[in-house]
Specification:
Length: 108
């Protein structure tokens, strides 16, 4: 638990953590997911997206993109967090992260 909390702190310190508004797509489209990555200047980077709960359309939209991993926030391991160049977290997933990894000091 402490290791995951430290990993999140490391991402914050190195400006590798991005919190985004919750989003979904009308249908699973890789093109839409790529547009979102481009808007965040993350195209071509190894990215981990943490969602709140299972979001099938978001998962299907990003699963074919190289260097992109999508996980439910409470299932991310320390390795998952550190093994990516950027960590993108949906706003609703922040509460899940705080419950799972700590007491709310890391991400607010």
């Amino acid at each position: 638990r402490l290791a995951r909390k430290s990993a999140l702190s490391y991402k914050v310190k190195d400006n590798q953590l991005v919190i985004v508004e919750d989003f979904s797509f009308d249908a699973p489209k890789t093109k839409d997911f790529n547009k979102m990555l481009s808007a965040l200047n993350l195209s071509g980077k190894k990215v981990l997206l943490l969602t709140h709960g299972k979001q099938e359309i978001v998962f299907k939209s990003g699963r074919n993109i190289k260097k992109v991993n999508i996980l439910e926030a409470d299932k991310a391991s320390t390795y998952d967090i550190l093994n990516n160049q950027a960590l993108v977290v949906q706003k609703s997933a922040v509460d899940a992260i705080n419950k799972t990894f700590g007491n709310g000091e890391v991400v607010s």
